[in-house]
Amino acid sequence: MSETTDQAAKHEVYQRLHATAEFHDLRRRYRGFAIPWTIAFLSWYLLYVVMSNWAGDFMGTKLFGNINVALVFGLLQFASTFLIARLYATHANKSLDPLADKLRADYDSSAVGGSSSHGARR
To answer: Would the pTM count as exceeding 0.90?
Structure first.
Protein backbone atom coordinates (compact mmCIF):
# COMPACT_ATOMS: atom_id res chain seq x y z
CA MET A 1 0.00 0.00 0.00
CA SER A 2 1.38 3.44 -0.85
CA GLU A 3 2.16 5.97 1.85
CA THR A 4 -0.62 8.27 0.65
CA THR A 5 -3.18 5.45 0.81
CA ASP A 6 -1.85 4.44 4.23
CA GLN A 7 -2.25 7.99 5.54
CA ALA A 8 -5.75 8.27 4.07
CA ALA A 9 -6.77 5.01 5.76
CA LYS A 10 -5.39 6.19 9.10
CA HIS A 11 -7.16 9.52 8.68
CA GLU A 12 -10.48 7.74 8.05
CA VAL A 13 -9.98 5.59 11.15
CA TYR A 14 -9.17 8.67 13.22
CA GLN A 15 -12.26 10.47 11.93
CA ARG A 16 -14.41 7.44 12.85
CA LEU A 17 -12.90 7.25 16.35
CA HIS A 18 -13.19 11.02 16.79
CA ALA A 19 -16.95 10.69 16.39
CA THR A 20 -17.33 7.98 19.06
CA ALA A 21 -18.84 8.52 22.49
CA GLU A 22 -15.63 7.18 24.06
CA PHE A 23 -13.52 9.91 22.43
CA HIS A 24 -15.93 12.62 23.55
CA ASP A 25 -15.97 11.12 27.06
CA LEU A 26 -12.15 11.19 27.12
CA ARG A 27 -12.13 14.87 26.13
CA ARG A 28 -14.83 15.68 28.70
CA ARG A 29 -12.91 13.94 31.48
CA TYR A 30 -9.67 15.70 30.53
CA ARG A 31 -11.29 19.13 30.34
CA GLY A 32 -13.22 18.47 33.55
CA PHE A 33 -9.91 18.17 35.36
CA ALA A 34 -7.62 20.51 33.42
CA ILE A 35 -9.79 23.61 33.12
CA PRO A 36 -10.83 24.02 36.79
CA TRP A 37 -7.34 23.24 38.12
CA THR A 38 -5.74 25.61 35.61
CA ILE A 39 -8.11 28.38 36.66
CA ALA A 40 -7.48 27.61 40.34
CA PHE A 41 -3.70 27.65 39.95
CA LEU A 42 -3.64 30.81 37.84
CA SER A 43 -5.93 32.55 40.34
CA TRP A 44 -3.68 31.47 43.20
CA TYR A 45 -0.60 32.70 41.31
CA LEU A 46 -2.29 36.00 40.43
CA LEU A 47 -3.21 36.46 44.12
CA TYR A 48 0.48 36.05 44.99
CA VAL A 49 1.53 38.62 42.36
CA VAL A 50 -1.20 41.12 43.33
CA MET A 51 -0.46 40.81 47.03
CA SER A 52 3.27 41.17 46.41
CA ASN A 53 2.60 44.36 44.46
CA TRP A 54 -0.15 46.02 46.50
CA ALA A 55 0.01 44.42 49.95
CA GLY A 56 3.71 44.81 50.60
CA ASP A 57 3.32 45.41 54.32
CA PHE A 58 1.32 42.19 54.74
CA MET A 59 3.67 40.15 52.53
CA GLY A 60 6.66 41.55 54.43
CA THR A 61 5.25 40.49 57.80
CA LYS A 62 7.81 38.30 59.53
CA LEU A 63 6.41 35.01 60.75
CA PHE A 64 9.55 33.74 62.48
CA GLY A 65 13.19 34.63 62.04
CA ASN A 66 13.74 35.96 58.53
CA ILE A 67 10.77 34.03 57.14
CA ASN A 68 8.00 36.34 55.96
CA VAL A 69 4.56 35.82 54.42
CA ALA A 70 5.88 36.38 50.86
CA LEU A 71 8.45 33.60 51.22
CA VAL A 72 5.82 31.21 52.54
CA PHE A 73 3.46 32.12 49.67
CA GLY A 74 6.30 31.58 47.20
CA LEU A 75 7.11 28.17 48.61
CA LEU A 76 3.43 27.27 48.57
CA GLN A 77 3.42 28.05 44.83
CA PHE A 78 5.93 25.23 44.34
CA ALA A 79 4.02 22.92 46.65
CA SER A 80 0.73 23.56 44.84
CA THR A 81 2.40 22.93 41.47
CA PHE A 82 3.62 19.52 42.59
CA LEU A 83 0.29 18.73 44.25
CA ILE A 84 -1.68 19.51 41.09
CA ALA A 85 0.77 17.47 39.01
CA ARG A 86 0.28 14.51 41.35
CA LEU A 87 -3.50 14.90 41.29
CA TYR A 88 -3.41 14.98 37.48
CA ALA A 89 -1.23 11.86 37.30
CA THR A 90 -3.66 10.02 39.58
CA HIS A 91 -6.66 11.26 37.58
CA ALA A 92 -5.04 10.32 34.27
CA ASN A 93 -4.10 6.83 35.47
CA LYS A 94 -7.59 6.19 36.79
CA SER A 95 -9.88 7.99 34.35
CA LEU A 96 -8.04 8.93 31.17
CA ASP A 97 -5.48 6.23 30.40
CA PRO A 98 -7.86 3.24 30.27
CA LEU A 99 -10.09 5.08 27.80
CA ALA A 100 -7.14 6.36 25.76
CA ASP A 101 -5.64 2.86 25.67
CA LYS A 102 -8.92 1.46 24.37
CA LEU A 103 -9.12 4.14 21.68
CA ARG A 104 -5.47 3.52 20.72
CA ALA A 105 -6.10 -0.22 20.47
CA ASP A 106 -9.15 0.45 18.27
CA TYR A 107 -7.06 2.77 16.11
CA ASP A 108 -4.15 0.34 15.85
CA SER A 109 -6.41 -2.58 14.96
CA SER A 110 -8.32 -0.55 12.37
CA ALA A 111 -5.51 1.48 10.79
CA VAL A 112 -4.04 -0.44 7.88
CA GLY A 113 -5.12 -3.84 9.08
CA GLY A 114 -3.56 -3.55 12.51
CA SER A 115 0.00 -2.82 11.37
CA SER A 116 1.06 0.21 13.34
CA SER A 117 4.36 1.76 14.27
CA HIS A 118 3.02 2.73 17.71
CA GLY A 119 4.70 0.89 20.53
CA ALA A 120 3.46 0.40 24.05
CA ARG A 121 3.20 3.66 25.96
CA ARG A 122 4.58 2.39 29.21
So the answer is: no
